[in-house]
Design the sequence.
C-alpha cells in the first residue's frame, strides 16, 4: 500500500512552453501533498505544500505564478511549470501524506524535466 | 573554486561490512526523523524513522540512533550489500501547528564494493 505515482516520468520541452506534472496517490487519500525540486548531486528542496481544496503554501523564494499547483482531489495534485526556461530543468518529486496525524510521507518516482 | 552544494559526502565500504551514515540536524524543536534511500533517477524510499522520545530504533539490518543533545542522527546498516549503494538522506519534521513539512539533509553517497 501507500503508492504514489507521477506522470510523466520524463519530459523535454522548448523554452517558453508550460509543462504539467501529475502526482497521484493510488491506494490512499492524501490530505496533503508536497512538491520538491532536486538538482544534480543535491538534496531535495521543498517548493510548496498543498492541501486538498485550498491554495498551496509556497516556500520562500518559490514563485507561485511560475509554479502553479492544483490539488483538486484527495488523490491528485498537479504542478504546472509555466513559461519554462533552461534553469527550470530539474528532477521534480512529489510526496503525499495521509491524514489523521500521521507524519510519514510517501514519495513518487520523480519527473525529470529538461528545458531546451 | 568550489561550488556550495555540489560535493556530496561519500562513504565507500566493502560488501559485508557495517556502514554508518551520519547526519546533523538543525532544529532542536524537530520531533520526528526519517532516513530515506534514493537510487539514481528515482524518488526517495523510506528506510526507518524515529521519534524524539526515543534514542534508538531497529529495523531489518538497519538501526537509527538519535542524540538530541548534539542534534545528531545516524543510520547503521549491517552486512552492507551492493544493493545498498545509493544516496541516503536524513529528514527532520519541523512541526508548526498542523505543518508536517520535512527538511532534508545534504545526503551521503554510499558505495558498496563487491
Sequence:
Amino acid at each position: 500500500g501507500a503508492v504514489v505515482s507521477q506522470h510523466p516520468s520524463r519530459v523535454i520541452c522548448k523554452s517558453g512552453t508550460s509543462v504539467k506534472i501529475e502526482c497521484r496517490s493510488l491506494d490512499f487519500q492524501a490530505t496533503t501533498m508536497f512538491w520538491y525540486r532536486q538538482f544534480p548531486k543535491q538534496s531535495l528542496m521543498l517548493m510548496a505544500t498543498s492541501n486538498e481544496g485550498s491554495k498551496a503554501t509556497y516556500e520562500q523564494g518559490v514563485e507561485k505564478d511560475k509554479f502553479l499547483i492544483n490539488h483538486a482531489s484527495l488523490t491528485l495534485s498537479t504542478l504546472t511549470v509555466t513559461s519554462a526556461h533552461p534553469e527550470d530543468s530539474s528532477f521534480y518529486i512529489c510526496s503525499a501524506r495521509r491524514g489523521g496525524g500521521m507524519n510519514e510521507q510517501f514519495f513518487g518516482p520523480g519527473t525529470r524535466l529538461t528545458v531546451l | 573554486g568550489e561550488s556550495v552544494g555540489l560535493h556530496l559526502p561519500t562513504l565507500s565500504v566493502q560488501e559485508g561490512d557495517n556502514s554508518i551514515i551520519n547526519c546533523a540536524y538543525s532544529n532542536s524543536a524537530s520531533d520526528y526523523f526519517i532516513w530515506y534511500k534514493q537510487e539514481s533517477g528515482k524518488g526517495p524510499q523510506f528506510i526507518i524513522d524515529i521519534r524524539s522520545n526515543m534514542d534508538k530504533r531497529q529495523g531489518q539490518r538497519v538501526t537509527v540512533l538519535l542524540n538530541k543533545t548534539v542534534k545528531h542522527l545516524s543510520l547503521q546498516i549491517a552486512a552492507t550489500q551492493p544493493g545498498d549503494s545509493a544516496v541516503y538522506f536524513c529528514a527532520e519534521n519541523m512541526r508548526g501547528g498542523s505543518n508536517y513539512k520535512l527538511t532534508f539533509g545534504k545526503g551521503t553517497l554510499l558505495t558498496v564494493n563487491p
